[in-house]
Amino acid sequence: MTTGGGATPAAGAPALPRAIVFDWDNTLVDGWGAISAGLNAAFDAFGLPRWTLDEVKGRVRKSLRDSFPAIFGAEWERAREVFYREVRTRHLDVLHSMPGTTGLIPALATLAPLAVVSNKQGILLRAEADRLGWTRHFRALVGASDTRADKPAPEPLRLACAACGVLPGPEVWYVGDTGLDMQAARRVGCKAVLLGDAEHDGGVGAVDADLVFPDAEHLRAAVTGLASAARMR
Question: Which 3 state secondary structure label does DSSP give 39?
């Protein structure tokens, strides 16, 4: 595994990605306040114990349609209504970009096609990208229920790659913050790239990434360096 913590050796250095696809929550943005409020509203409605914010960050991985049936059983669709009603009232007000991503996104958009694949509902994802002024930088913003199956199923990443004009493969990076993101990348043959320390998911060693960058600035510097090297060849 190559890390982005320092200079990348020339031997075995990755190629400039043909496209970069990002996860959304806890990778590019912090929207946990709305997600936590929505979950706890649903738990309250069904008399279930609340989750702390740390528990939400540690447990939320799959899309709602993949996770709610296990939590709420036959009533999961009613729980979904409660969740989304709460989230819609606040998600844009509590939305923040993750450190360094405000500069990262426009910088990388000049070097490679960008897209997003998230397990956040597509309509919410696209509203958040609009609020941040980022929509123009992405070829596609693929959210939950936008394809037949949600991440880590292969369909969302295939759709994002198609929008970027490339086929899935090792020269496409999927950048995320969890082991589920790394799994999604490998299911379609993309490079699994971890951004951050995955502390909420067992740490770097537990998520089995191909590349690791501790923060947005290291990722930006690495891709910029690969672009410079490609121009010099």
Answer: helix
